[in-house]
What does this fold into?
Amino acid sequence: MNFIDALNWRYAVNQFSNEKLNQQQVNGLIESVRLSASSYGLQPYQLFVIASDQVKNDLLPFSYGQTKVANNSHLLVFAHKTQITSKDISLFISSLAKSQNKTALALNDYQQVISNDLLAKNENEQSAWAAQQCYIALGKLLSYTAINQIDACPMTGFDSQGINQVLGLNKQGLNAEIICPVGFRSTDDISALRVKYRKQTADLVTML
Ligand SMILES: Cc1cc2nc3c(=O)[nH]c(=O)nc-3n(C[C@H](O)[C@H](O)[C@H](O)COP(=O)(O)O)c2cc1C
It folds into this structure.
């Protein structure tokens, strides 16, 4: 299937079958998120991959009645950092330097650029910036699922405070931004019959 056909094939699944993703498929999903681009490369988020029925059921009361949060193969949670500190930036720079066989000193100018931008933001702005990065990773995930004929439903319709509490995210300096059940569409999913609506190209694109 080519990429555009895959994007037409995918839809936000409402009802998943009982079939489970195998480990290789789960690893592929994780890798698509891990390889996502992010501003400065900081990846200010964590991905939670939940296979446990117990944990999914604990999260269900915070999903505004959307039972797909419990009925899926795996539930993914994108949680972003709520604050970016100079320590976060230093740790990132040292890891980056190590991976590129450089000294942290050689990346000093880069560290300064990042710090001047991110440390000038207040906590709300830092949190919003970090949340934006989750959506880029979500885009990668949804493309990967489509091309590999895995189903997903990106979701922001949930009570983040409840999800944060169940997963203990606050104490890790994290906030749940997006949740995404993954698996395989049920043959009973009536959402599959919905005609895909998108803006016409002329309404979306301006060519100059
Ligand atoms: C950021 C984001 C949040 C969404 N939140 C929900 C949600 O909480 N519940 C839901 O059923 N669908 C949710 N959706 C799915 C959209 O409604 C769906 O992608 C859109 O209607 C287009 O339909 P399609 O993806 O089936 O082509 C969300 C999608 C995105 C990208």
Summary: Helices lie at 3-9, 23-34, 53-59, 86-99, 108-118, 123-147, 160-167, 201-204. The chain has two domains: 3-83+123-204, 85-120. The chain has eight helices and four strands. Residues 6 and 147 are 5 Å apart (CA to CA).
